[in-house]
Amino acid sequence: MRILVIEDDAVLRDVVVSSLRDAGHHVDQAADLGAAEHWWRVQRFDAILLDLNLPCSAVRGSAMGSGLALLQQARRRGDNTPVLVLTARNQTPDRIAGLDSGADDYLGKPFELAEVEARLRALVRRAIGTQDVSTVGQLSLERNNRRFRVGMQPLDLPAREFEVLWELMSPPGRAVSKRSLSDKLSGYDDALGDNALEAFISRLRKKLQHSGAAIRTLRGIGYLIEADGGDAA
């Protein structure tokens, strides 16, 4: 899984990040609201660990902000990434507020690292089960069948192009970084050359020309797929 850990306590954050990486997950981390919002917007994650009391910047003594506000903002823009709240605010009213704000699960501090990972796995399984099909234009991804279609016609792709398009469609309309796509492709035997990702994107664009979907480049960030507005450059 690719996981974002949002936690301002450096010691606790390092412990959680190290544990998740040791378990084989890709982990990014944020210590304040600004970094958290940036990561959440530009990268696709399978799950997010969210603390509630967060500084507005990484500078010592900065004002504190609300992780719940960050969560509510993400939900308002249609982001359904599974979120596990980790917080010392563990009273019943706090739990209710967190769940009503869009959290998928809530775990009070202190906690066991093994339970954190188990809850993340459960959240991701649940999310996959409720998001079987994604559609952009006439392009659709059927996750359970691991199959793309354009209209009623299957879209057959080589393995690496398939994985790139899968990432862009999970979910569509969200920026996916070049780093994330490169990590996805690095599991294959062939070395990933400097221009390989751009070549895969170029080939996919040609195959999607009449699908009503287009891959857009976000310079300095990565790519996203969206309904074709006539400019995929």
Task: List key phrases describing it.
alpha/beta, 8 helices, 39% helix, 233 residues
Gyration radius, rounded: 19 Å
Q: Estimate the helix proportion, in percent.
A: 25-40%
State the end-to-end CA separation: 30 Å
Number of helices: 8
SSE arrangement, N to C: EHEHEEEHEHEHEEEEHEHHEE
> Biggest β-sheet: count, sense, barrel?
5 strands, parallel
Shape: elongated
Low-confidence stretches: none
- Mean pLDDT comes to 83
Order of strands in the sheet with the most strands? 2-1-3-6-7
Q: What share of the residues does DSSP label as strand, in percent?
A: 15-25%
Got a strand count?
Answer: 14
Describe the structure.
The structure is a single chain. It contains eight helices and 14 strands. It is α/β, with parallel strands linked by helices and about 230 residues long. The strands form four sheets. The chain has a five-stranded parallel sheet with strand order 2-1-3-6-7, sandwiched between helices. It has a four-stranded antiparallel sheet with strand order 8-9-10-11, with no helix packed on it. A hairpin with a 3-residue loop joins strand 13 and strand 14 (about 220-225). Helix 6 packs across helix 8 (about 195-205). It is elongated.
